[in-house]
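Hi L.,

You mentioned the student needs an example of a multi-chain input paired with its predicted structure. This one should do, with 254 residues in total across all chains.
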Amino acid sequence: MSTKARTYDARVDSRVQLSPHLVRLTLAVDPAFESTGVPDEWIGLVVPGQFQSRYYTVRSCASGELVLDVVVHDQGLVTEWVALDECVGATVTVTEPKGSFAMPADASWLMLVGDLTALPAMARIAESATVPTRIWAEVPDELPGYLTERATVTWLDPPGGDGSRLAEVAQHIEWPAREGYFWMAGESAQMRAIRKHLMRDRQLPSTAYDVMGYWRASSGRQLRAVDPGPIWRAGKAAGKSDEEIWQQYDEARS
Ligand SMILES: Cc1cc2nc3c(=O)[nH]c(=O)nc-3n(C[C@H](O)[C@H](O)[C@H](O)COP(=O)(O)OP(=O)(O)OC[C@H]3O[C@@H](n4cnc5c(N)ncnc54)[C@H](O)[C@@H]3O)c2cc1C
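Structure written out for the whole complex:
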């Protein structure tokens, strides 16, 4: 089985600053590009003059219009490109989308935890959810209306710098009775800590949660951006659990 993702051209039609750290790009994408419908699906984005990808959630995709919400960090390859209005009109490359959210049919609640990079996925997941949904969002900006009113949201201030205390937050969540689904994404070290907690302390089966490292705290540009797509596809083809696949992804990036 080939693990190479298909790629598509897309043109940036608009750039809207949603908040100090979040920029919305609307792209006209090749009509052959098709959403998987999985609400945390992501694409790889290659911006002009670059060959490395960075990964972004498909905030929405309909009628050839692809919407990405991009976080602007202190520095970074896509950060520097998206910070300027000149990105409008550019042709970029996007890879075929992949998603990993897999809520069991009998789940009676949903809990989502993440930072600003996970907010687009949490927004889309919550919009598609049919069970009571709680969200913990660690974000530096005010984004009224970004998350559906149907979800119960706890907004958390980031601790400053590139820090995150999401693992600690997640460890102290009061777990609802009955079966549900837990989804979490953000800084990789935090995600590793929470995976251990879910496996060892809560002894949850890997089908009850999905925890993904979306970025690694480091100084300067990320040196190794590894496409989660091929690892995901190869892992699934080999019958690995989500847990094993995301662990393998973290290792590939370290
Ligand atoms: C499946 C998946 C879905 C994702 N969805 C989104 C999304 O919808 N929107 C989005 O903005 N990001 C998303 N991300 C995260 C995004 O790919 C990374 O944050 C990426 O590193 C940003 O690229 P960059 O070129 O701006 O910075 P890079 O050149 O990669 O990194 C530059 C510097 O910024 C630091 N850095 C990177 N990310 C962060 C961060 N989040 N907070 C603080 N410092 C950081 C790095 O440690 C490095 O020092 C997703 C990642 C994955 C794997």
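You could point out the following to them. The first strand starts at residue 7 and ends at 19. The mean pLDDT is 91.

Best wishes,
N.
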